[in-house]
Amino acid sequence: MPTSPSVASAPTSPVRVTRDRRADLIVTLVALALAVWVTSGLWRDPNGRAITVNSSDQALFEWLLAFGGHAVSHGENPLYTYLINVPDGVNLAVNTSITVYAVVFAPLTYLIGPPATFLVILTLNLAATALAWYWLLSRHLVRSPLAAAVGGLFIGFSPGMVSHANAHLNWTAGWLVPLLVWRVFALRRPGRWLRDGVILGLLVAVAFSIAAEGLFFTALALGLFVAVWALHPANRAEARAVLPSFLRGLAVTAVVAGALLAYPLWLHFAGPQRFHGTGFDPVIHSEDIAAYAAYPRRSLAGEAGLRTSLAPNPTEENSFFGLPLLVLAAGCFVLLWRRADPRRRATLWALGILAVAFAVLSFGPVAKVDGRRTDLPMPFDLLGHLPVVNAALPARLALVVTPVIGLLLAYAIDQLRQRPPRRAAAVAWTVGFVVALVPLLPTPLLTVEREPIPRFITSGAWREYVSPGGVLTPAPLALDVYPDGQRWQAYALANRQGEFAIPSGFFLGPGGPDGRGRIGPVPRPFGALLDQAARTGLPPIVTEGTREEVKADLEHWRVETVVLVDEVHGAKWAVDEEALRRTLTMLLGEPERVEDVWLWRVRQN
What we know:
Blueprint: H1 21-38, H2 40-43, E1 49-51, H3 55-73, E2 80-81, E3 90-91, H4 99-104, H5 106-112, H6 114-141, H7 145-156, H8 159-164, H9 176-186, H10 193-231, H11 236-260, H12 262-270, H13 300-306, H14 323-339, H15 342-362, E4 366-369, E5 372-377, H16 380-383, H17 401-418, H18 423-437, E6 447-449, H19 455-458, E7 471-474, H20 484-494, E8 508-510, E9 517-519, H21 525-536, H22 544-557, E10 559-565, H23 577-588, E11 592-594, E12 597-601
Parallel strand pairs: 7-10
Antiparallel strand pairs: 1-6, 2-3, 4-5, 8-9, 10-12, 11-12
């Protein structure tokens, strides 16, 4: 008759842990110090600096924080808005709405502003991820505080996490994963399935509202791990014994999470402005096989010149473990396997299959090696067309490999401390850990000074030129590459100045090829003209037909005021403000100078 399982018995044999408060304090301080170190460029001036490689996503998350808090405090729908993409609005349930963060941190957003709140959350995300994994390891999986610290800190500040710290508040919320793991395995406890199912259902609802794609990946990973672990001969008896309780708990989880997420899920799959799949090319956004052995940009090795350009962009270095760490992880696996009993081997077998499966899936539809595409089809080519899967970027599946490596490191250190090897072997293991991990120590994110919010907005002067809830547009129109409009709107909402709407915006919506999504709305003539002038510095040829098209666009959007600042923030390239002013003058006539902006009033019929 199997004994009652603990949380620990799934990934390893049950361990009795004595809480070490000193170790807890040290790890907490190290995690906070590393988090502040990584984000230190922003801490120099939270309201005046932006992440160099991803200022557009930073502006989006700042806007989401401001809008979410405003929506809840004003009784508006936090998952659908008409403040951007006038007149169609935006379905935020199919975007990364981070609603829980927006609500919880709303008082802070109102107090210190969206940029500073964004920085606080980003810093806490990094520290909390490391600490959550340390807690899971130290309380349930390993005896050694050092083992738990190395595993937790590695996962929390892994290359993938530091890469996504370039403005992704959703993906850096990695603290959710160990909590989900903990609560899933807690479902095995007999007689507590109702309570445990409710708790897991609440956690799933929170995770969905912060990082839906990460929740999906976690569910896939846990499903595969549990299936492989339970089917192993060493665990079949226990699996059969706990299956009824586990299934009851999952049913309760589904009911609780389904009830809480009924409206967001309806919006996601059947609501207005939804889409199926994304406009991102899965071949481009897949992991290069060579990337697993490469080093990331923001690391000691990267600073030493060993970085590569194998990622689609600097925010997607999802593996990049370096060859020494891959060798060390393999060595840890062999060490643990040789010393393991059958149940521990079952766990190692499940972890190995999990890592290999997600690594292969991360290669996308077609394998790439050192930047060169091959003709070798990959398993993702079969799965990538399935619903939900078609909205995921295959490269991010590599993020699942990181916790597996972290667990192997922690288990190995725990074993080595319990059964110390001979002196020469101990020195070799120590050197191996140093050589593998020190080059991956993170370096601060690159930041740049960004253009300030114009006085026209900060002084509230805009209210004299826009009716309550009316439409104002920056020039060029707000997009991922021109985030000014949403930054202005975030400032106005967070400082309780009132609401103004904008056409366009940075969001995912319908209109992409083959019914897939795209960034921003389908372009219209007015936006295209301004974009051309901003990019090239060459005002377009304007005819009477051009003016009629522009007039139709402005009427469609109900624009009352067009605003051009002296310095426009271009997230990807420099903007030619003089070309923009000349273009707008040809289209709309001479502007007014109000505060520190050029302004064109638009008369609506």
